[in-house]
Design brief:
Strand content: over 45%
Structural class: mainly beta
Largest sheet: 7 strands, mixed
Number of strands: 11
Number of helices: 0
Helix content: under 10%
Radius of gyration: 13 Å
Distance between the termini: 40 Å
Length: 123
């Protein structure tokens, strides 16, 4: 059974930085895309960023491109999301997810999910 465990969320002031981590276990993950999504209160879950299994391919949602960086440690089955210049609009629960295959945006195409970690940006 696949398990994803996120960490690193918290409260940060506007303009600050955080790094989220997500470690996957339960099977091998070669060939998998790992992604980050977020959901703010009253809003739909939205794509943030994703990275291919070899780390060479990445894709970002427009509002975070240039501020967020996704990376992956294949040996540790861990994906990171480095977030800089955080804004109040980034406040949400952030979820890690995996899918076998290439990077796609729709959250419904990701099979396994973590429990989420809260990120709160104060203005």
């Amino acid at each position: 059974q696949v398990q994803l465990v996120e960490s690193g969320g918290g409260l940060v002031q506007s303009g600050g930085s955080l790094r989220l981590s997500c470690t996957a276990s339960g099977r091998t993950f070669s060939g998998d895309t790992m992604g980050w999504f977020r959901q703010a209160p009253g809003k739909e879950r939205e794509f943030v960023a994703a990275i291919g299994w070899n780390g060479g391919n990445t894709y970002y949602e427009d509002s975070v491109r240039g501020r967020f960086t996704i990376s992956r440690d294949k040996t540790e089955n861990t994906v990171y999301l480095r977030m800089k210049t955080l804004e109040s609009e980034d406040t949400a629960v952030y979820y890690c997810a995996v899918r076998y295959g290439s990077i796609v945006v729709p959250w419904s195409l990701y099979k396994s999910w973590g429990q989420g970690t809260q990120v709160t940006v104060s203005s």
